[in-house]
Amino acid sequence: MQAFDLLTIGHSNVPAERFVGLLRAAGVAAVADVRSTPASRRFPWFSGKNLAARLQQEGMSYAAFGDELGGRPRHPNLYCDGIADYEAMAKQDEFRAGLHRLLTMAAQHRLCVMCAEREPLDCHRCLLVARALADRGITVGHILHDGSIEPHAALERRLLAAGGEDADLFVSGQRERLSQAYRRRARAVAYRAVNRSNRGDAE
């Protein structure tokens, strides 16, 4: 298994047994929940208290990080045209403190960041949190629901390809194109305060 400093996963609608199996197969010892509201009406086994109890039974720890690293900011200045602004959020002291706490926990346990979306490119755990970690030199792997782990660098190539961009990150100017690709994707999938009914479980 490729070495990663930190992993991510989206719980989606999988049964609790399958979810725990994915974590166990990846060697996860602790879960960091980055949902702004750690609850699920449709899948109550993924609500924070229920999940923490289930993980404890499996010998894994649980910690909530939604206040610092959630995808639904409380301050109106962190929205652009009613859409959560990930680039502005990444500059906040609270977010940076959350990353520091996350990395402290990752130094002690094999840690997995969890949110709701199945596809990493549809979720702030990738477009905001994992991007910020990768920018700090942290190697991140995304657990997919087939049990494979996609390196964040491979996911960035997918992000570029989805926008019709050349996926060679060593091409001159490609970093700026990658930033633009992140920005476009975030605008497409980030939480919209202007239409609270269009999203399911909380990021």
Q: How would you characterize the overall build of this protein?
A:
With 203 residues, the protein is an alpha/beta fold. Helix content is 40%, strand content 14%. The chain is built from 8 helices and 8 strands. It has helices at residues 16-25, 48-57, 66-69, 86-89, 93-106, 124-135, 152-162, 174-189; strands spanning 6-10, 30-33, 61-64, 79-80, 83-84, 111-115, 140-143, 149-151. A 6-stranded mixed sheet has the order 3-2-6-1-7-8, sandwiched between helices. The longest helix is centred in the last third of the chain and has 16 residues, at 174-189.
What does the secondary structure layout of this molecule look like, with pairings?
Layout: E1 6-10, H1 16-25, E2 30-33, H2 48-57, E3 61-64, H3 66-69, E4 79-80, E5 83-84, H4 86-89, H5 93-106, E6 111-115, H6 124-135, E7 140-143, E8 149-151, H7 152-162, H8 174-189
Parallel strand pairs: 1-6, 1-7, 2-3, 2-6
Antiparallel strand pairs: 4-5, 7-8
Work out the strand percent.
5-15%
Task: Please give the alpha-carbon distance between the first and last residues.
Answer: 29 Å
The CATH architecture is: Alpha-Beta Complex
Write down how many β-strands occur, each being a DSSP E stretch of 2 or more residues.
8
How many strands, what sense, and barrel or not for the largest sheet? 6 strands, mixed
How many helices? The count is 8
CATH structural class = Alpha Beta
The total domain count is: 1
Strand order of the largest sheet: 3-2-6-1-7-8
Globular, elongated, flat, extended or rod-shaped: what is the shape? globular
Uncertain runs are 196-200
CATH level-3 fold name: Protein-Tyrosine Phosphatase, Chain A
Average pLDDT: 92
The gyration radius over C-alpha positions equals: 16 Å
Q: State the helical fraction.
A: 25-40%
Helix and strand element order: EHEHEHEEHHEHEEHH
The chain-level structural class is: alpha/beta
